[in-house]
## 1
Amino acid sequence: MRYQISGKQIDIGTALQTHVQTELGEAVAKYAQRPTDANVVFSRSAHEYVCEATVHLSTGLTAQARGHETEIYAAFDSCCEKMETQLRRYKRRLKDHHRDRSEPVELSAASSYILASDKTPTEEEPSSLQPIIVAEMETKIPSLSVGEAVMQMELAGAPVLIFRQEGQDGLNVVYRRDDGNIGWIDP
């Protein structure tokens, strides 16, 4: 696993870097196979040290954790503990969902576009109602059950997930509502 350990206006010594690599490496190795890279950033917020860690896994999952304490090592230990808890929960969810599934998830190809936003509020109508396409990418739409779709959305930290419900035609959407609950659109 590749590590990028840095500090925002803080000098990070080699002892702290070694501590981060060994502790985070052990925590991630327990619950995740093949982690690709980790980014750990230390900063100060008033009298506390803040540690933010992001770990990218080969499965596409990005796990993030944040800890803050009055000492820099304690801030990292708090962050590492949260990361380990998060990875343990995700691994348990994946194990529970894969018991019922006998075949791998089927993926369908689709196009994904990034549209330019109109950041300048004007009172005049735009000359064209066609949006400006900034980027075009290929994306995959999985064929999942509703429970698996909710789990995938939470794992990715995304506000919305589009999927095909197994055994049905049409696209379904699960999304996080403003009240904290999950919404499901079934055509």
## 2
Amino acid sequence: MWPTMTENEQSHDSPRTEPETAAVVALRTSELDVDEGRSEWRSTLGHLYAEMDVAWPESRSGLDAEWGGRPLGDLHISTIRCDAQTVVRSPEMIRSDASADYLVCLVTGGHVEVRQSGRTAQLERGSFALLDLGAPFVFHSRATFGQVVVRIPGSAMAARLPGAYSHLATGRSFGPATGASAIVGRLLTDLAATPVSAAAASSFSLSAIEMLSATIIDDAREDAEAESFHAQDLARIKRVIGENLHDAELTLSDVASMSGMSLRNVQKLVKTTGRTPSAWLYEARVERAKSLLLTTDLSVATISEQVGFRDVSHFGRVFRRLAGISPGRFRAPNHALPPAMPPRTAG
């Protein structure tokens, strides 16, 4: 079982000070007692990356871990080996210690699981994941693992990776078998193991960012295209509903037919919004009713009919449930107020 800590849990760690990407790390916890070793491990995470919390299995009596890290141009690159652990960056930590940077976690031994952006990735040797330090995530390993971790400035990624791709890239696995991701994995492993001069480090780091960005774009292109088509299909469904809200007999089958889609496809698309098809239709009716209440003098009963309700009482109940207020009270503040009475003067 995983430790009970979650992405939403607030850490007891203190906020991190300004990151120093020039930091050189040489940490071996076997030379420390268990409490001191764990404290140093947490401190190094916070110092190099951002505020995070770490949990270890309760049965673990000590911590056997090593960390070596150094700057590489604009990057910071580390080689890590550690016992089983769970690392969490929660919304509370992001608020207290914001960061726009990214981490590339390349597994060199064992198995790791990461969760971010609603996705879960299983990483094996040679595969890597991109983690956004500006969004909550969970990093978990059930056993001893090894990895290369690269911190990349957010500005460097933003200049090379469109926003849609950066969102699609987090919380997923790249590699390890063949192709561009395998080349990037080998490059990062070699850079972590081979010190280079300061002059070469700048060029190498830029090349690594360029190669990583190209790999992410190439790998995520199909998902980006699918997401674009998904958005277009949802927009078409919304348009059909909007054009037929007056029809109290409108069904999802009608919407599917008029949208040129199968009923099953429409049901699946609507469910991706987190709402049921009937809820989606009711929300559209209420949104149209709000517009009519604010922009026309039509009666509530007439508006109820125009947005597809047979019964004004039913309309009122649905409106109140979704808007938190009755149709009449929703409209009232927007009516003209009576002229103010002149102030009284002393007689």
